[in-house]
Amino acid sequence: MYGYRRIQVWLKKIHRLHINHKRVQRLMNELGIRAVIQKKKKPYYGKKETYVTSDNYLNRDFTASKPNEKWVTDITYLMFNGQKLYMSVMKDLYNNEIVAYQISRRNDLKLVVDTLKKAKKKRNVKGVLLHSDQGFQYTSRFYHNLLKKYQMKASMSRKGNCWDNACMESFFSHFKTECMYLYSFKTAEAVQDAVCKYIRFYNHQRFQKKLNNLSPYQYRTQAA
Q1: Which of 11, 38, 39, 115 is deepest in the core (most CB within 10 A)?
Q2: pLDDT tens-digit readout, 150-170
């Protein structure tokens, strides 16, 4: 189980032998001794594309003065009956309204692209700042080319900093507490039906204190 550094410590503590770790490593290599614990393999997502990132233009300013000014997006997993689904969501920061969502068995580029295409059918996306993390879907060349085609601007969280997209994490927390954790789902169809009903409720009926106790839809239509 021990690698050369722990072997060095073992020799010192148990046998009182003070040996440089480089010498231990060389002797272990000569004797064919190596730790049985293997390094974890990195997940493979198919052929690698050019890695494209954007600056964090959102910069944790989770407010917007009008609809379709700033959106945030992310993916979460939905566990049911020992299985897993993935849900991609886009939210408008003006009124916290869920603009589009997509559910899939696979956490891949297609999931994100399908969500974006759904959003474009519902809203005027020209000029929208769309913020995400640096997941492999969002850093793909195809995704960025699609944003350019739609005349949208990409913004990305700093690597490994979940607080840069905290408002999206907040929605997922509410959604799972108020929907996923309350029921026991047997099928993917049951999960999809529950998600559809919850997002309709969230957008049209669930009032929010920051929206003057209006639902996202009521707040947007009242302003209009």
Answers
A1: 115
A2: 999 999 999 888 899 999 999
